[in-house]
Amino acid sequence: MSPKTQEPVITKISDLPLDEAKWITLKRIDYVDQVGKPRTWEVATRKTRAEKAGVDAVAMGNILLHPSRAPATLIVIQYRPPLDAYTVEWPAGLIDADETAEEAAVREFKEETGYECKVLSVSPPQAADPGMTNANMQLVMVEVQLKEEDAEDMEGPEQRLEDGEHIQRVIVPLSEFYDRLIEYSKQDRMIVAAKLFHFAAGMHFAKTQTYGPL
Fold first, then answer.
1. Are residues 79 and 86 in contact, defined by beta-carbon separation less than 8 angstroms?
2. Which segments constitute the Nudix hydrolase domain (predicted)?
3. Number of folded domains in the chain?
4. Cα–Cα distances in Å, from 123 out to 9, 28, 180?
5. pLDDT tens digit string along 109-168?
6. CATH code, domain carrying 70
């Protein structure tokens, strides 16, 4: 990853002809609703959906286990031009054409974080933003076994980032997960990704709710 020399700056926003779009296209859906009325819907679709997996992307929920420290998770922070802001996320990426979700998760986690991981579970396909797009994803939970000499504040193993990727890694103890995301959300030009916050909020709710055992 090249060293950061400035903050990202959007220089222009313009309409994009569909025949020039490389990754995304727009479609119109004509359908008949539940009471027999004809309707239309505009939808954005990816051009890159993997045929083997039938799913666009994976996100890697992760647990870092250290011999003498409490369990933690690794989050990534990167600039997202559609938001003109930095997002706090779990590592994630598109599934290649010949990959399964599990294979993509292991590859992407290694590329973005530098760590080898073991897959623990794979979710069913999940809708990303069903009011706007048919984009879907799977949450792959992975485990990383750290060594005693792996310090919490170390830079970590070398990332394998593509040109244009600038990804900051942050290790957060699970006991501080929810509170740290709240603090990030208060920072200027910083947004916490929904799927990450929902997971942390679920953990927080399970610990703080007063409805009895869950």
1. yes
2. 55-194
3. 1
4. 36, 29, 25
5. 999 999 999 999 999 999 999 999 999 999 999 999 998 887 665 567 888 888 888 999
6. 3.90.79.10
Q: Which residues contact 169 (CB under 8 A, 6 or more apart)?
A: 74, 75, 76, 112, 113, 114, 156, 159
Specify if 97 maps to a domain.
yes
Q: Is there a domain that residue 148 lies in? A: yes
61: enclosing H helix or E strand: strand 57-66
In a domain, 6, yes or no: no
Please give the model's pTM, rounded to 2 decimal places: 0.91
Which tens digits make up the pLDDT trace of 170-187? 999 999 999 999 999 999
46 has pLDDT over 70: yes
Rounded Cα distance, 113 and 116, in Å? 9
Please classify residue 50 by burial: count the beta carbons closer than 10 Å to its beta carbon, then call 0-12 exposed, 13-18 middle and 19+ buried.
buried
Is residue 156 assigned to a domain? yes
Instruction: List Cα–Cα distances, 119 to 103, 163, 173, 198, in angstroms.
Output: 9, 27, 20, 21
Give me the domain span that covers residue 77: 48-208
